[in-house]
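Reviewers of the previous submission asked for a worked example of the structure-prediction workflow described in the proposal, so we include one complete record here. The input consisted solely of the amino acid sequence. No template or homolog information was supplied to the procedure at any stage.
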Amino acid sequence: MTGTFTRYRYFDQSPVFGGEILVDAKETKSAFILRLVSFRVRYPHGGIDTLLFGNADGLVRIPKRSSTHALNIWPHDFVLYPYRAGVPFLFVEV
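From that input alone, the workflow returned the following structure tokens.
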């Protein structure tokens, strides 16, 4: 994931919060950068909408240290907890 953008997908089939989010992600030495590609969710929850739509350029920079968002990174997926609130979002490499 380091260096270039890689596409990741969050998918939920639940009848209430179901939907799909596609992001391009890149890891740098000091941050994790997300670029929103597609956002099709019935009812956004957990602050994911305010996190991803917060910047006009569509890029979200999450610092690795002292971030308001919790992030667990693995080789082919990552889990994002926007604003360190209860709903985790598992993004899997496409």
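The mean pLDDT is 88. We consider this example representative of the routine output the project will generate in years two and three.
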